[in-house]
Specification:
The chain has ten helices and two strands. The protein is mainly α.
């Protein structure tokens, strides 16, 4: 009996002495693969943004193609290549049209990229009906992936100091994802929306906001721009990015999937990697191109 009591006491003592982060910091292979592939993908995105033009379009088409494949696979009852091909073709045609006609004075030609996207969405309706699948889901996939891609391209083509603005947008998105992941994992606490995404916490939400704001403010400080303006931009982008992440979590839960795919080691699928961008890029385009907001006032080039 004394041995049993000693064992129980030892177990209780061990449980009290266990470090706070003992379980949270358990080693995982993702510690290596996630940052490695994250840096690689970031380098590709930065290079494509820097060179712009056809290189940027090619980067967007490849990324959107992989994302479209994963989206339609979630909603297809059998092979998903036909709806995926329709979406990829519509997005590619829209981006190429935008690249060559964005500066055209003819308003109809400037609307052409959007008309191409909507044509792709409409084309999905009879295909989905014939296959007995959700027409709204397949048609929505064209817009869900295509509109953000078009927003990125329009920002790269038309935003003031476009390269810097697009890079700062990407940094704000990446900072949000990293900040939310790290603070949410280490701190934990109350869940943000447990019925939609059981792993997201308020700590992660606030952490993502803080890191994104700090990064955009740091960019403004480095470039001698207005820090508060850049900070506001970073916070707005962070909220949109986390809304995009939450939306994709809802979609995955309803389709019965944990990840949209497994193409990127440590990250899951392409949609898992870019879900934040799919809400953040349109917001940035609306603010900058629609309302004339400059997140880096005073910066030239």
């Amino acid at each position: 009996m004394s041995g049993v009591r000693e064992t129980a006491a030892t177990a209780r003592a061990g449980s009290h002495k266990a470090p706070f982060f003992q379980n949270k910091l358990k080693f995982s292979r993702d510690w290596i693969t996630r940052p490695l592939f994250g840096v690689l993908l970031a380098a590709i995105a930065i290079a494509a943004t820097w060179y712009g033009g056809p290189w940027f379009v090619a980067f967007l088409v490849v990324g959107c193609g992989a994302a479209a494949r994963e989206w339609h696979r979630m909603f297809a009852r059998r092979e998903f290549w036909l709806p995926a091909v329709i979406t990829i073709a519509a997005i590619a045609a829209s981006l190429i049209t935008c690249l060559f006609w964005n500066q055209n004075a003819n308003q109809l030609l400037r609307l052409a990229p959007y008309l191409v996207l909507w044509s792709g969405a409409i084309a999905q309706l009879p295909v989905a009906a014939l296959r007995g699948e959700s027409a709204l889901a397949h048609a929505g996939g064209v817009l869900y992936v295509g509109i953000p891609a078009l927003a990125f391209l329009l920002l790269r083509l038309s935003a003031p100091h476009a390269i810097t603005v697009v890079l700062m947008l990407l940094l704000a998105i990446w900072a949000t994802d990293t900040g939310a992941l790290v603070t949410g994992t280490l701190i934990g606490g109350p869940k943000l929306a447990p019925s939609w995404s059981p792993n997201k916490t308020w700590a992660g939400f606030v952490g993502g906001l803080c890191i994104a704001g700090a990064v955009t403010a740091g960019v403004a400080l480095t470039l001698r721009s207005q820090v508060l303006v850049a900070l506001a931009f970073g916070l707005a982008i962070s909220v949109a990015a986390q809304a995009g992440d939450l939306f994709e979590s809802v979609v995955k839960r309803r389709s019965g999937r944990k990840n949209s795919g497994g193409l990127i080691p440590g990250h899951g699928g392409v949609l898992d990697r870019i879900d934040s961008s799919l809400f953040a890029a349109p917001l940035a385009a609306i603010l900058i191109l629609g309302f004339g907001f400059d997140p880096l006032p005073g910066v030239t080039g």
